[in-house]
Amino acid sequence: MQNNSSSNNTDSKTSFGYHDGEVETVISVDDVNRQAQQLAETISLEKISGLVEGEPFLKIEDLNAGYGKMEILHEFNLQVGKGQSLCMIGPNGAGKSTVLHSIFGFTRIFSGQILSQIGDTQKSITQMSSSQKLKEAGISYILQDNSVFPDMTVEENLMMGAYLKENTDEVRISIERIFEKYDRLKLRRSKPARVLSGGERRLLEISRALVMEPNILLVDEPSIGLEPRFIDMVFEILDDLQRNEGKTILMVEQNAKKGLEFCDIGYVLVSGNLAMADTGDKLLENPDVGRLFLGG
Predict the structure, then answer these.
(1) Cross-strand pairs, 124
(2) Using CA atoms, how far apart are residues 195 and 75, in angstroms rounded to an integer?
(3) Strand pairing of 248-252 and 216-220?
(4) Which of 87, 190, 247, 264 has the highest count of CB atoms within 10 angstroms of its CB?
(5) Count of structural domains within the chain
(6) Is 9 part of any domain?
(7) CA triplet 64, 242, 20: central angle to 5 degrees?
(8) 3 state DSSP class of 27
(9) In degrees rounded to 5, what are phi and psi of residue 26?
(10) Which residues on adjacent β-strands are paired with residue 268?
């Protein structure tokens, strides 16, 4: 990175990279936003729906949403099928996490709607509370920040995920199922969560979300703060949940390459707008994505 501190060095300028790693050319965030925004004209509803396998399991239509009086998302559309995964990438402040917040009920919806498959019927969940979305629509949100309760045991942390379940027997069965699936947690079930490694804490956060047996997982930055070996572990866990348990996964991931390699569908967001949409593989091969977000 070079700093344009001398008027004689006309080729140097301060730059900010979106991705990790070494590259010969790093363009500024403003340039990323400006260049990526120019691509938004090519996105159509036909393009979005064409990426879905079967009928949309979760759908966002012309959503304008934000916080207080500030609108972050503008006429935003999204579709994902049952058992599919979708990853959103883009510069900081693009509105990626706001999409997840809007789905789960953490934002102000100015207009538009969010629909989800509940049983055999697609229903609007736009005005549902977060608790209703978890209990009735089967949508669970895995937070970006460390949300483990360090002084509680692993088992007690899992029980916190079942606060909406009224049947204690069902809670026990669900937790035992998780322990049978993940030995790392089973061996530490009576230990305080503070003894877990970073990757194990992330596993506990994911597992706590599974106690309510959701159909849709909203996953915010699963790789954040983790060592590479734990990042691979977390993505293997998510892959198993999608491929073998049929979970629908919506993800925000700052590690664009890792997220697009994992997901069936990739979206690029810029300034609250959908700038690009394609399969994860095709976005990885797209020269604009490589230039703007992957450093290639």
Answers:
(1) 115
(2) 45
(3) parallel
(4) 87
(5) 1
(6) no
(7) 70
(8) coil
(9) -120, 120
(10) 89, 276
- Write the CATH number for 147: 3.40.50.300
Q: How far apart are the first and last CA of the chain?
A: 16
In angstroms, the Cα distances linking 135 to 57, 174, 212 are 17, 15, 8
The answer to whether position 6 is within a domain reads no
| DSSP-derived secondary structure for 152-211 | SBHHHHHHHTTTT---HHHHHHHHHHHHHH-HHHHTTTTSBGGGS-HHHHHHHHHHHHHT
Residue-wise pLDDT tens digits, 99-148: 999 999 999 999 999 999 999 899 999 999 999 999 999 999 998 767 89
Residue 269: left if φ>0, alpha if ψ -120 to 50, beta else—which one? beta
Residue 249 lies inside a defined structural domain of this protein? yes
Q: Which tokens go with 229?
A: 């070996």
Distance CA 90, CA 73 (A): 13
**Structural domain range at position 105:** 29-294
Sheet containing 56-67, strands listed edge to edge, beginning at the edge strand earlier in sequence? 70-81, 56-67, 108-118, 121-124
Burial of 131 (0-12, 13-18, 19+ CB in 10 A): exposed
In this prediction the pTM is 0.86
